[in-house]
Amino acid sequence: MTEGYLLFQLPNLLIAMAMYSILARFLLALFMRPDQVMLKVFTQVTEPVLAPIRMITPRIVPEPVIFVFAFLWLFALRIVFYIVMRMYGLVPSIVG
After folding, report:
1. Residue 1 confidence (pLDDT) above 60
2. Cβ-count burial of 22 within 10 angstroms (0-12 exposed, 13-18 middle, 19+ buried)?
3. CB 15 within 8 A of CB 70
4. In this structure, are residues 77 and 60 in contact, taking their beta carbons and an 8 Å threshold?
């Protein structure tokens, strides 16, 4: 039973981590200079997620909008992942 929880929780947490890292990078970019260490770390962490979205997005779209697209795509992925896992009965229940 615990492997079912792990199959649900681990990918769910990784997708959530990517979502919130993109959000943090967006907010940090508003208030920090590009040479700040923390912003560089978030850039390195989020770039593998943002690169495919940049490839399919037209070049006319500004960079901040790409962050929003990435966040929304990951949010949709998280919802679809939940629905699929629920269909297979791998979502943990809240019953005490």
Report:
1. no
2. buried
3. no
4. no
